[in-house]
Specification:
The chain is α+β, with helices and mostly antiparallel strands. The protein folds into two domains: 70 residues, Beta-grasp domain (Ubiquitin-like (UB roll)); 72 residues, [2Fe-2S]-binding domain (DNA polymerase, domain 1). The chain is 38% helix and 14% strand. The protein contains five helices and five strands; from the N terminus they run ββαβββαααα. It has a five-stranded mixed beta sheet, sandwiched between helices. α2 crosses α3 and α2 packs across α5.
Length: 151
């Protein structure tokens, strides 16, 4: 039995502690906004927050989480999350949408730590978030727009 707090709710999960967080989120807790992309932490589709910091759920074992709080795209909230969502909609960032929950979670993590990121800082924070549709320019523009709205 592993205890996890996901989106502010405590859960007791009957799973091996070696189980990747991604599978617990999707299969046990039905939080399907967190996507499976590559399984090796290279694409970013499975990005969630662990105590506010972006991590790849496909490579985070539930037994390693301890007391840390997990936040998924379904549970992320607050001023920064609202600014990112608004910018994403306003600039029509999404094309197919598959990667976008991970993209947004990484962007929220960046803007929570850095109020006015440069292009280089955005590129660094978003590195490893793959968008097969190639919406990188819209993603960068939306992060800048979200930052302006938070100023």
């Amino acid at each position: 039995m592993v205890k996890l707090t996901v989106n502010g709710v405590a859960h007791s999960i009957e799973a091996d502690p070696e189980t990747p967080l991604l599978w617990v989120l999707r299969d046990h807790l039905h939080k399907t906004g967190t996507k499976y992309g590559c399984g090796i932490a290279q694409c970013g589709a499975c990005t969630v927050h662990l105590d506010g910091q972006p991590v790849r759920a496909c490579q985070t074992r539930i037994g390693d989480i301890g007391e840390a709080k997990v936040t998924t795209i379904e549970g992320v909230s607050g001023r920064v999350a609202d600014a990112v969502r608004t910018a994403w909609r306003g600039l029509d960032v999404v094309q197919c949408g598959y990667c976008q929950s991970g993209q947004m979670m990484s962007a929220i993590g960046l803007l929570s730590d850095k109020a006015k990121p440069t292009d280089a800082e955005i590129d660094g924070a978003m590195d490893g978030n793959v968008c097969r549709c190639g919406t990188y320019q819209r993603i960068r523009a939306a992060i800048h727009e979200a930052a302006r709205s938070l100023a």
